C-alpha cells in the first residue's frame, strides 16, 4: 500500500461506491439471516415432531451446534451418519490374516458365491455387503465419484483400475443382510501397509468382529501379535472362526486345535468355533460345516448387544460433537477477547510507538528554526541601522522677549530601508533559502507522520492476518470481511486526523514564503515611520519629545507582526500546537473506532457465552440419556 493513499482526495469520491457495496452486503446478510431463520425453524419443527428419542437428540444437537455458526462439513457428515445408524443394520467386520478364506466364508454366510476368492487384487479393497432388492455392485472411486458395475467387475478388475478405487458396496437380496451388513476387509498381513490403517478404522465402527484363522496354522506368534495389538480391546464383540476344519483328519484333531486356540487366544475373543466354509457351500454338508455356530453367535450375542449398545454409541458421538463444539466455542471466544483487548490498547500503542520515533523532536524543531530565522532577520535589520549627525534650528526667546533661532547638532539613528529591502529580498539571500528549506520541512512533517501511520496500519493488518489465521481454526464463520472492515475503518480514523494536520501545515508552509516580501516591507516601513515621526516631534520640541532609537527587541516585534509570529507560535509551539491537537484528534477517532467494534464484539461474546451455556446443558442431557433407558 502506498502511504499517499491515506490522504488522496480521490478516496473520498469512492464513498458512494462503498455505500453501494455496504448496501449489497447488508442485503446479502439479510438473505443469509433469513435462510438461517428458515433452517432454525425447520430444525425446531423436526425436533417437535420427532417420535424417536435418538433422532430427537440428533436434531437437538444439530440445532445447538448451529446457534452461532454454520455446521462444519465434518459435523454434517457425522450427524447424517448417526441418523442413518438409527435404523441401519448392525455392521460385522470380517478380518484375518491374508488368504485366510474371508471371501469364501462370506459366500458361505450369504448362501451364494458372489465374492471372488483366492489371492486376487479385489480382496485388497473394503467391500461392504448390504441388503438390496437386486444383486448389484456400486464402485466408489478415490475422486469421490461412484458408478454401478456388473458383479463380473469383481473378477475382471486390473491393478491400474483398482488403484483408482476407494471401496465397493455389494447389494444382495439375502435375508440375513436385512439385519447385518458385512464388511470384507483387507486384513493386517497384506503387502500394502495402508490396509492395516483401513482395517483399524473399520474396527472402531463395527458392532461385531469375526476373526478368520486357518485351523491348521492357528496361534502363530505373528498372529498373536496382531490380535494383541489390534483386536484385544474389542474382545466382547469378537468371535474367532477357525476355517478349513475339513483339512483335519478327524474330530479329535479339530478338538485339539480348538483347545490350543482357546489357550493361545485367551481373553481375546468371546467365542471360538471351528468351521468349514467350503462344506457350508455344499447344501448336503452344511450342517457338518458348523457354519450355524457362527450365525448363532451373531443372533444371540452380537445383534442383541449391538441393539442395546447403539443408543449408547450414538449418544457418545453426540457428546463428542458437543464437547468439540464447546471447545471450539471457548477457543473462539478467547480469540475474540484477544481482539477486543488489542483494539482497546490501540490509543496507548500509537502513543507508545510515537515515543519511539523522532517525530516530536522533528515537530518541535520547526518552531525553533522559525524563531531563529526571525531572530536572524531582526539582527540583520538592527545591524543595518546607521547613525547620522544632523543640524536643525529651534526658536528661542531671550530675556528681552526677542525670538532667535538656535542651531542644534544631533546624532540620530536612520534606517536605510531601500538598501535593506534589496538585500533581504534578493533571491540569493541566505534567509530566503533558509525559509524555503523551513517551508519544505513544515510540509514534509505531514508526510513523515503519514509514513508513521502507514507503518501502524501495516502492523495493524499483519496482526489481524495472524489473528484471522488463528480464529479460523475455531469457527465456521468467515471473519475475512470483519478483518477488511476493521482495517478500512482503522485507516479512515487515521486519515481524518492526518488530513486535518496536513491541511494546517500546508497553510503555514504556504504563508511563510508568500508573505515574506510584504512582511519585510511592512516591518521596515513601520520602523522608518516611527523613527521619522519621533525626529519630527523632536525637532519641534526637543525637551518634550525624544528621538526614537530602535532596540533589537523593537525590531523583532515588528518582524513578528509581519511574519504572523503569534499564529506560528500557537500552531507550532504552545500547549495547543498542531502536534498535540493532532494526537487529540487521532485519539478521539481511534476511540470512536474502538467503541464501535467493542459493542459488536461484546454482543458476539455474549452470544458465545449463551451458546456455551446451551452446549453444557445439552451435554448434561446427553450424558443423562434417561429417555433411552
Automatic annotation (TrEMBL):
SUPFAM superfamilies: P-loop containing nucleoside triphosphate hydrolases. Keywords: Coiled coil. Transmembrane segments: none annotated. Residues 92-244 form the Dynamin N-terminal domain. Residues 598-625 form a coiled coil. It comes from the Bacteria. Residues 1-25 are annotated as: Disordered. This is Putative ATP /GTP binding protein. It comes from Helicobacter fennelliae MRY12-0050. The lineage of its organism: Bacteria, Pseudomonadati, Campylobacterota, Epsilonproteobacteria, Campylobacterales.
Amino acid at each position: 500500500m502506498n502511504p499517499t493513499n491515506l490522504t488522496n482526495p480521490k478516496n473520498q469520491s469512492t464513498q458512494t461506491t462503498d455505500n453501494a457495496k455496504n448496501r449489497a452486503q447488508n442485503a446479502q446478510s439479510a438473505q443469509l439471516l433469513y435462510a438461517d431463520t428458515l433452517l432454525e425453524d425447520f430444525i425446531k419443527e423436526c425436533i417437535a415432531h420427532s417420535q424417536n428419542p435418538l433422532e430427537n437428540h440428533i436434531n437437538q444437537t444439530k440445532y445447538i451446534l448451529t446457534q452461532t455458526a454454520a455446521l462444519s462439513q465434518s459435523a454434517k457428515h457425522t450427524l447424517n451418519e448417526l441418523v442413518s445408524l438409527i435404523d441401519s443394520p448392525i455392521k460385522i467386520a470380517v478380518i484375518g490374516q491374508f488368504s485366510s478364506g474371508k471371501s469364501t466364508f462370506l459366500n458361505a454366510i450369504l448362501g451364494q458365491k458372489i465374492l471372488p476368492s483366492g489371492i486376487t487384487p479385489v480382496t485388497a479393497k473394503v467391500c461392504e455387503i448390504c441388503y438390496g432388492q437386486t444383486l448389484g455392485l456400486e464402485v466408489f472411486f478415490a475422486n469421490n465419484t461412484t458408478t454401478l458395475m456388473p458383479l463380473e467387475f469383481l473378477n475382471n478388475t486390473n491393478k491400474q483400475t483398482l488403484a483408482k478405487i476407494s471401496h465397493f458396496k455389494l447389494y444382495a437380496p439375502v435375508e440375513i443382510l436385512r439385519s447385518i451388513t458385512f464388511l470384507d476387509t483387507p486384513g493386517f498381513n497384506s503387502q500394502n501397509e495402508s490396509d492395516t490403517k483401513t482395517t483399524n478404522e473399520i474396527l472402531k465402527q463395527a458392532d461385531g468382529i469375526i476373526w478368520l484363522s486357518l485351523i491348521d496354522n492357528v496361534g502363530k506368534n505373528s498372529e498373536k501379535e496382531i490380535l494383541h495389538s489390534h483386536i484385544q480391546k474389542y474382545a466382547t464383540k469378537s468371535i474367532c472362526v477357525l476355517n478349513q476344519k475339513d483339512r483335519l483328519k478327524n474330530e479329535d484333531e479339530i478338538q485339539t486345535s480348538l483347545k490350543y486356540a482357546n489357550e493361545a487366544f485367551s481373553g481375546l475373543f468371546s467365542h471360538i468355533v471351528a468351521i468349514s466354509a467350503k462344506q457350508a457351500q455344499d447344501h448336503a454338508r452344511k450342517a457338518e460345516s458348523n457354519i450355524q455356530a457362527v450365525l448363532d453367535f451373531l443372533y444371540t450375542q452380537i445383534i442383541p448387544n449391538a441393539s442395546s449398545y447403539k443408543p449408547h454409541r450414538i449418544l457418545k458421538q453426540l457428546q463428542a460433537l458437543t464437547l468439540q463444539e464447546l471447545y471450539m466455542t471457548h477457543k473462539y471466544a478467547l480469540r475474540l477477547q484477544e481482539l477486543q483487548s488489542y483494539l482497546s490498547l490501540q490509543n496507548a500503542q500509537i502513543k507508545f510507538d510515537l515515543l519511539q520515533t523522532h517525530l516530536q523532536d522533528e515537530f518541535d524543531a520547526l518552531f525553533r528554526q522559525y524563531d531563529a530565522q526571525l531572530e536572524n532577520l531582526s539582527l540583520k535589520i538592527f545591524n543595518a541601522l546607521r547613525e547620522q549627525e544632523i543640524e536643525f534650528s529651534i526658536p528661542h526667546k531671550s530675556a528681552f522677549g526677542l525670538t532667535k533661532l538656535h542651531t542644534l547638532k544631533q546624532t540620530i539613528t536612520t534606517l536605510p530601508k531601500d538598501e535593506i529591502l534589496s538585500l533581504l529580498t534578493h533571491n540569493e539571500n541566505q534567509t530566503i533559502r533558509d525559509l524555503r528549506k523551513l517551508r519544505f520541512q513544515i510540509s514534509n512533517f505531514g508526510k513523515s507522520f503519514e509514513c508513521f501511520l502507514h507503518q501502524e496500519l501495516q502492523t495493524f493488518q499483519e496482526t489481524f492476518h495472524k489473528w484471522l489465521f488463528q480464529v479460523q481454526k475455531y469457527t465456521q464463520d468467515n471473519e475475512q470481511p470483519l478483518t477488511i472492515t476493521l482495517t478500512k475503518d482503522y485507516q479512515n480514523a487515521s486519515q481524518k486526523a492526518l488530513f486535518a494536520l496536513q491541511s494546517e501545515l500546508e497553510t503555514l508552509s504556504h504563508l511563510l514564503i508568500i508573505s515574506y516580501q510584504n512582511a519585510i516591507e511592512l516591518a521596515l516601513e513601520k520602523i522608518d515611520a516611527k523613527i521619522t515621526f519621533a525626529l519630527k516631534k523632536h525637532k519641534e520640541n526637543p525637551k518634550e519629545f525624544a528621538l526614537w532609537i530602535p532596540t533589537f527587541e523593537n525590531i523583532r516585534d515588528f518582524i513578528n507582526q509581519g511574519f504572523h509570529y503569534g499564529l506560528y507560535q500557537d500552531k507550532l509551539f504552545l500547549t495547543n500546537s498542531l502536534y498535540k491537537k493532532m494526537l487529540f484528534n487521532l485519539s478521539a477517532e481511534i476511540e470512536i473506532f474502538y467503541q464501535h467494534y467493542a459493542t459488536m464484539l461484546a454482543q458476539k461474546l455474549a452470544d458465545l457465552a449463551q451458546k456455551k451455556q446451551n452446549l453444557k446443558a445439552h451435554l448434561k442431557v446427553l450424558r443423562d440419556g434417561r429417555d433411552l433407558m
